[in-house]
Known about the structure:
- With 100 residues, the protein is α+β, with helices and mostly antiparallel strands.
- It has one domain: 2-Layer Sandwich (Gyrase A, domain 2), CATH 3.30.1360.20.
- Helices cover 45% and strands 21% of the residues.
- The protein is built from three helices and four strands.
- It is globular, with a radius of gyration of 13 Å.
- It starts with 7 loop residues before the first helix and ends with a helix.
Amino acid sequence: MPRQKLSSEEIQQALADLPGWVVKEGKLYKQYKFKSFAQALGWLVTVGVQADKMDHHPEWCNVYNRVEVFLVTHDLDNSISGWDVELAQHMEKTAVPLLQ
């Protein structure tokens, strides 16, 4: 997806395909709960590598098996962009096998 600010309608359309994601504090947000700290940490590393390749920098916090994620594009006036949606999609794809 392009690195372009999304309209409210486009954000709502994207959220329809991102289970558990919401807009919170003007950012895409989701809390993941893994089975263990090791699983949460492994997911963070895997997703972190992809985020680095995208030159995207998620805001996230890990406490034991929980990871809270906020996504916003800082260089587009802290707005939600297609870039954030793309990273959220990757996060979902990576997390789903671990959460089953």
